[in-house]
Amino acid sequence: MPELQRFNVTVRICNPDDSSVIAEHVLPVDSPDSEHAAASTMSNAISFTTKTEGGTPLPVTFQVVKIEKRI
Protein backbone atom coordinates (compact mmCIF):
# COMPACT_ATOMS: atom_id res chain seq x y z
CA MET A 1 0.00 0.00 0.00
CA PRO A 2 1.42 3.42 -0.94
CA GLU A 3 2.23 5.86 1.83
CA LEU A 4 -0.40 8.56 2.23
CA GLN A 5 0.46 12.24 1.89
CA ARG A 6 -1.42 15.07 3.57
CA PHE A 7 -3.14 17.70 1.39
CA ASN A 8 -5.49 20.65 1.73
CA VAL A 9 -7.80 20.73 -1.30
CA THR A 10 -9.83 23.86 -2.06
CA VAL A 11 -13.13 23.19 -3.83
CA ARG A 12 -15.23 26.02 -5.26
CA ILE A 13 -18.97 25.53 -5.79
CA CYS A 14 -20.50 27.88 -8.38
CA ASN A 15 -23.73 28.68 -10.16
CA PRO A 16 -22.95 28.05 -13.87
CA ASP A 17 -25.75 30.38 -14.99
CA ASP A 18 -24.04 33.52 -13.71
CA SER A 19 -20.61 32.24 -12.49
CA SER A 20 -21.37 33.37 -8.93
CA VAL A 21 -19.53 31.53 -6.15
CA ILE A 22 -21.92 29.68 -3.86
CA ALA A 23 -19.25 28.39 -1.47
CA GLU A 24 -15.56 27.57 -1.22
CA HIS A 25 -14.24 24.89 1.13
CA VAL A 26 -10.71 23.88 2.10
CA LEU A 27 -10.82 20.19 2.95
CA PRO A 28 -8.01 18.14 4.49
CA VAL A 29 -7.39 14.78 2.83
CA ASP A 30 -4.77 12.04 3.15
CA SER A 31 -4.10 10.45 -0.23
CA PRO A 32 -1.30 8.73 -2.19
CA ASP A 33 -0.89 11.76 -4.51
CA SER A 34 -2.45 15.08 -5.50
CA GLU A 35 -4.59 13.58 -8.29
CA HIS A 36 -6.24 11.12 -5.91
CA ALA A 37 -6.65 13.91 -3.35
CA ALA A 38 -8.48 16.08 -5.90
CA ALA A 39 -10.70 13.21 -7.10
CA SER A 40 -11.73 12.04 -3.64
CA THR A 41 -12.35 15.57 -2.39
CA MET A 42 -14.44 16.42 -5.46
CA SER A 43 -16.49 13.26 -4.92
CA ASN A 44 -17.16 14.20 -1.30
CA ALA A 45 -18.03 17.81 -2.18
CA ILE A 46 -20.52 16.64 -4.80
CA SER A 47 -22.04 14.08 -2.42
CA PHE A 48 -22.66 16.57 0.40
CA THR A 49 -23.90 19.56 -1.65
CA THR A 50 -27.59 20.20 -2.33
CA LYS A 51 -28.16 19.60 -6.03
CA THR A 52 -31.95 19.53 -6.20
CA GLU A 53 -34.84 21.48 -4.73
CA GLY A 54 -38.32 19.98 -4.74
CA GLY A 55 -37.20 17.36 -7.25
CA THR A 56 -35.82 19.99 -9.66
CA PRO A 57 -32.07 20.09 -10.42
CA LEU A 58 -30.26 23.21 -9.23
CA PRO A 59 -27.57 24.86 -11.39
CA VAL A 60 -24.34 23.96 -9.60
CA THR A 61 -20.76 23.25 -10.69
CA PHE A 62 -17.69 22.09 -8.78
CA GLN A 63 -14.06 23.03 -9.31
CA VAL A 64 -10.84 22.16 -7.51
CA VAL A 65 -8.97 25.48 -7.39
CA LYS A 66 -5.98 24.63 -5.18
CA ILE A 67 -4.09 21.64 -3.82
CA GLU A 68 -1.43 22.21 -1.18
CA LYS A 69 0.61 19.80 0.86
CA ARG A 70 0.02 20.22 4.56
CA ILE A 71 2.34 19.43 7.41
Describe this structure in words.
The chain is of the alpha+beta class and 71 residues long. Helix content is 20%, strand content 51%. The chain has one helix and five strands. It has one helix spanning 34-47, and strands spanning 5-15, 20-31, 52-53, 56-57, 61-69. A three-stranded antiparallel beta sheet has the order 2-1-5, with helices on one face. It has a two-stranded antiparallel ribbon with strand order 3-4.
Percentage of residues in DSSP E strands:
over 45%
The strands making up the biggest β-sheet line up spatially as 2-1-5
Mean pLDDT: 94
SS-based structural class? alpha+beta
Low-confidence stretches: none
Give the key terms.
71 residues; alpha+beta; 3-stranded antiparallel beta sheet; two-stranded antiparallel sheet; 1 helix; 5 strands; elongated
Quick structural summary:
The chain has 71 residues and is α+β, with helices and mostly antiparallel strands. The protein is built from one helix and five strands. It has one helix at residues 34-47, and strands at 5-15, 20-31, 52-53, 56-57, 61-69.
How are the SSEs ordered, and which strands pair?
Blueprint: E1 5-15, E2 20-31, H1 34-47, E3 52-53, E4 56-57, E5 61-69
Antiparallel strand pairs: 1-2, 1-5, 3-4
